[in-house]
Every structure is written in structure tokens, then in C-alpha cells.
Amino acid sequence: MTRLSAILVAALAAATAVVGSWQAQPAPTVERGHAFSGSWTASGTRHTIPTASGQAAIVRMSGTIVLASGQLGRGFRAEAIAFGDGETAGVGRAVWVDGGGDRIYSELVVEPIGTGRRIAGTITGGTGRYAGVSGDYTFTWRYVVTPGGSEVQGHTTDLAGRVLIGRGPS
User: Fold this and answer.
1) Cα separation, 46 vs 2, whole angstroms
2) Would you call 23 helix, strand, or coil by DSSP?
3) Do 94 and 109 contact (CB within 8 A), yes or no?
4) Which residues are bridge partners to 54 per DSSP?
5) N or C: which end of the chain has fewer CB within 10 A?
């Protein structure tokens, strides 16, 4: 066997060992992540337009999230925006920002907009110490619309989820 052939065989064996060990590692899942729970208090605006079957609405909220348990920080400023047509599940986006400015991003699926509606969030990533984060959460939204106005104030009940924190920036 020539020296070049021996090097190629050794490289192939090493690559096979690396690929084999990589494939043996199970993919991370949120089910194996860390549970968290807390509350979200927010205020904002709700804008509606009439539709043939009721009304469609865009809601923009900002406030604070306080977590009572879990591997995430304890407090976040949070913003969310959601759209619902009043008949089908609505969609939205949220961003949570900790005291250091690091962010967690999520997509929201909202039952038809209103008080007592369930909202499911899928954590899609983050910045800084939350780079590579994934997870999911749910909560029930309780809100009060100011009569005759577009102002909205409210809070969540039963905010809970699971998070898998990826490797932060290198």
C-alpha cells in the first residue's frame, strides 16, 4: 500500500467514525428541554374592521413577562402583534427582551381573538445568550378593552412551556 493510499484509508476511517458518532446522537427535542412558567401583563391597542361574518382585528401589546421557574431569565420586556379574522385561528409574532438586551423570538397561533382564548407560541430563536433557543409555550389571555376605544390591557393565566437552550455565540 502506498503512503497516499494509507492516508486516504485512515482519513476515510476517521470520517466514518465521526459520521457514525454524529448519527448516534439523538436530535435535541423540546420534550427534553427545561419547563418554565410565569405570567405576562401587557397593554396596547386593538384595531378592528367589519367583515361579512363579524370583525377582523390586529392587536399590538407590550408589557412584562415574569417567570417563576425555569432556565430562562426571570424577567422580560415583551411585545406581540397578532391578526385574527374572528373565525379561524389568528397568527402573530412575539419578542421577549431580557435586561441585557438579549432576545427570544416566537411565532403565535391564536384562537379567534377575544378574552379567554388559548394562544400557543413556538420559540424560533434568539440572540446573545438565547442564540439557538427553541421551545414552545401556551397561555390563556384575559384582557379588557376600554369601552369606545382601541386601548387594551390584560394579563395571561397559566403561561407555561418548555425550552431547549442551544449553544450561545462562540
Assistant:
1) 75
2) helix
3) no
4) 51
5) C
pLDDT in tens, the chain (170 residues): 444 333 333 333 333 333 333 333 333 344 468 999 999 999 999 998 998 878 888 999 999 999 988 778 789 999 999 998 877 778 999 999 999 999 999 999 987 655 567 899 999 999 999 999 999 999 998 877 776 678 889 898 799 999 998 754 44
In order of 9, 15, 120, 125, the CA distances from 77 in angstroms are 56, 46, 19, 16
All cell numbers assigned to 21? 458518532
- Which is it for the CA torsion 75, 57, 88, 107, positive or negative? negative
Alpha-carbon gap, residue 91 to 76, rounded angstroms: 22
| 33-164: CATH, from 1.10.10, 2.40.50, 2.40.350, 3.30.160 | 2.40.350
Query: What global pTM score does this model have?
Result: 0.74
